[in-house]
Write a structure and sequence with these properties.
Helix 2 (about 410-420) packs antiparallel against helix 4 (about 465-475). The protein has helices spanning about 1-25, 410-420, 430-445, 465-475; strands at about 35, 40-45, 50, 55-60, 65-70, 75-80, 85, 95-105, 110-120, 125-130, 135-140, 145, 150, 160-165, 170, 180, 185-195, 200-215, 220, 225-230, 235, 240-245, 250-255, 260-265, 270, 280-285, 290-305, 315, 320-325, 330, 335-340, 345-350, 360, 365-370, 375-385, 390-400. Strand 26 (about 280-285) and strand 27 form a beta hairpin. It is about 15% helix and about 40% strand. The protein folds into 5 domains: about 35-120, Immunoglobulin-like; about 125-215, Immunoglobulin-like (Sandwich); about 220-305, Immunoglobulin-like (Sandwich), CATH 2.60.40.10; about 315-400, Immunoglobulin-like; about 410-475, no CATH class. The protein binds heme C.
Amino acid sequence: MKNYIVQWGWFVSLLFIFARCSSSANKDIIVAPSELIYSVNQLTIEEGQKASSIAPLLKGTPPFTFSVSNNPATSQIVIDNQGIISVLENITAGTYAVSVTASNSTNRATFPSVFTVNVKKKILPPSALAYTPNQLTLDFGAVGNSTAPSIQGTAPFTFGMTANPQTDKISINNQGVIAVATGLETGTYKISVSAKNDAGNVSFNDTFSVVVKPSPPSNLTYSPNTVEINAGTAVTSSLPSIQGTLPITYTMTTSPVTDKISIGNNGTISVASTLTAGTYNVNVTAKNEASTITFNNVFSVTVKSTNTPASPPSSLSYSPKILTIEQGKAGSSAAPTISGTSPFTFAIGSNNTANGQISINATTGVVSAGANTPTGTYMLTITAGNSAGMATFMGALTVVVNAPVVAVSFAKDIQPFLQVCGGCHSYNQYAAAKANIDNMLNRVQRAQGSGGFMPQGGSPLSKTQIDLLKKWVDDGLKE
Ligand code: HEC
């Protein structure tokens, strides 16, 4: 066994010697460059940066020299003698396919597009935002917008804004144009604009201003725009409507001049009760921060004198003209209508007031009949008086008092005249008559001498008796 190990060791030594002899035998053979490999074969940077690859692996006999060519061509990509590719800081954005040529003493080999350089555009943050002009001046109610601003940095930008004082009537669009919607309140608005891109969000404070000018008072209107009153009466107009920027203050003058008409803070016009008769035109002046405007003859007041003579009572009328009541129940008329100067006093001028059961309200003219008024018809004469005199109205109202209505009963109203049937029927008894009344009414209303006429062989019942039978039914067949 030991012998074999010795033999193996010798054999290995021989092999080693042979290998060395064969390598020294090939010492002058130069192998051409081949298989250039960058284990990371691309670089991505931003404009203005610089960077280098790692050294590549390359087969062949060193030493090597390297050169690069680029597509697109640039002097900003260089290679050193280790094959390390460097990108210099002045390279412009783009994608560069780098071909590397490796040479040794005998050969050269070109490895096309073996490396890629990506240079991304440098994104500059927004700066130097400016509007020309940097102010928008509008009348109240008008709309408008700024020009697009100038700005530096890398587009695209997105714009935002805030207004001071705050409002939702001002907005900004994608181009940075600031727009004002209608209805923006009077005032000065400082606008701060923010511009944003991938490099950052920059705010430009108070870079623009919007000025909304106040609007002068206009369209002052009173509804109604005239009043007519009697002397001795005070009155106040309605609240006027007006347009223009608030606050508005009011003053007024009148034609003819009087100090009995005045105007309040809210524009209402007040007329004192001491204003003498006549027609007064009112001119109102409305003032705000924009302007002072006078509205001539915007309101007028007419005061009528009141010394017209009183007129006597006339045309007294009750509706309805008849008051009908049932004895035992009280009742009242409606109030009458009457012409002339009020107030009036009323009285009953008739002799017959049913012992005072019929009376009149002296102030309203309403006539009342008491429950104990005897049955009958009372034609009343009414007198009415005022400051101008007195008038009598004959038969102005009729009071009719009817007898109380009493129900028909069998024993009292029916039984006496049904005795005529009693010889042949029991219809003169309550129970039988109640049970057969329909049939009885049928028979007693047949013509005398015709078939089935009752009372058989007798003379017909009178109309009053037949009506009583019918009313007995209507009143509920009382015993
Ligand atoms: C003299 C006898 C006599 C007198 C009085 C008489 N009736 Fe009759 N009544 C008869 C006779 C008989 C009949 C049956 C024959 C007929 O139906 O006509 C009759 C039939 C009737 C019937 C029909 C009965 C049924 O069951 O259908 C009625 C209802 C009637 N009479 C009502 C009266 C009334 C109401 C009176 C009184 C106002 C009266 N009669 C008086 C003899 C009389």
